[in-house]
């Protein structure tokens, strides 16, 4: 295994990085526990080398060489993951896709664009906007995440209620399988040629193959865009308003309901104390925007909603991706994180109450709150935020895991989904069987064994230990 880097250097000259700085920079993602370990002087052991292929053929060559030598491969896109999807142990080759960047093809009449997998989300969006189009996929990590990473983690964007999530905008994929074979799906608007093979890669977190190209289905930039803000006496009333809005067929791209603690934290100037803020953004043809805005206001008022200054939406748009890093909190002895889950309308209210209560019952927790940011006909998601400060700094990791366990157990007890869009990584893998059942996990393991019998692609991610 120690010779694999040398062999790759010979096969791909100029593509292999072995210097300590490059190896350390590609040894982890931004998962809070990895940030904590780094602060404590216990970072992951860097990989053997970082390889930066420039083509699908070079990716295939790397995977074939590593399979022949029995060397694990960890795929690295933008490194923006927050669930422990990238973590090395000193025996891997990290395959970075960042040299595989740029627009391959734009078809305005077909409303489609094909990008190489290392293209950052914001770069892809800017290029299609030059043609008056949009992908419509705006994850908070859009400036950091690669389009291949968005596929691998089954990403959701901030405009998802109207435009869908990544699985709704992916038209076709190209990927290299663990044995070096290249899979290409055809860019058709729909197909019934057996199971949808794109779905094997969407959410696979790098354990079944390496995404090398992504074709998106686009839409024209909207003619009009208008914000709307309301507040409600209770979180339940806000959820009911969203349910009625979506049920009626209205699809504002942005629908975000904040509970009272988060409303006070972000919007105290415009939202009365103990009220729950709902932010909406309407987009499309100007007449449709005005009709939708009026209809939504009427439905919200029927649930106890009161309108407030729509400048709240502008405030959110300006600051939505400005999130403080973990390091400042960790230096103060505080562990923080967000946990996104999903459930049907009949379960989501109980999950909110149960999870927040479970967090607040923990001795170290300073705050626990939630908001909903992605809604569907049959349900919505919740995005929990917690902060905890144990008396003993040595207990920070244990306190963090206790907070995660409290939320996961509450969600499972009420029949919800344990992950909405950040993925499983390492932080959720021990809870995966709670949702999928033993049969579901066994099926995933069978797929993994069939494609990657030696468990070389991103080992330790997604699947719980056998």
Task: Give a brief description.
With 466 residues, the protein is α+β, with helices and mostly antiparallel strands.
Question: Which features would summarize this protein structure in a list?
Answer:
466 residues; alpha+beta; Uridine Diphospho-n-acetylenolpyruvylglucosamine Reductase, domain 2; Uridine Diphospho-n-acetylenolpyruvylglucosamine Reductase, domain 3; Alpha-Beta Plaits; 4 domains; eight-stranded antiparallel sheet; five-stranded antiparallel sheet; 17 helices
Distance between the termini: 25 Å
Which CATH architecture of the largest domain?
2-Layer Sandwich
Let me know the average pLDDT: 97
Helix fraction, binned, reads 25-40%
* Class inferred from helices and paired strands: alpha+beta
Low-confidence stretches: none
Total DSSP E strands: 19
Task: Kindly give the count of domains.
Answer: 4
Portion of residues in beta strands equals 15-25%
Question: What's the CATH first level of the largest domain?
Answer: Alpha Beta
CATH topology of the largest domain: Uridine Diphospho-n-acetylenolpyruvylglucosamine Reductase, domain 3
Gross morphology: globular
Rg from C-alpha positions? 22 Å
What is the tally of helical segments?
Answer: 17
Largest sheet at a glance? 8 strands, antiparallel
Could you explain the architecture of this structure?
This protein has 4 domains: 4-96, Uridine Diphospho-n-acetylenolpyruvylglucosamine Reductase, domain 2; 103-220, Uridine Diphospho-n-acetylenolpyruvylglucosamine Reductase, domain 3 (2-Layer Sandwich), CATH 3.30.465; 224-319, Alpha-Beta Plaits, CATH 3.30.70.3450; 326-425, GMP Synthetase, Chain A, domain 3. With 466 residues, it is α+β, with helices and mostly antiparallel strands. The model has no long low-confidence stretch (mean pLDDT 97). Strands 12, 13, 14, 15, 16, 17, 18 and 19 form an 8-stranded antiparallel β-sheet that branches. The two termini are 25 Å apart. Strand 18 (375-376) and strand 19 (379-388) form a beta hairpin. The chain has 17 helices and 19 strands.
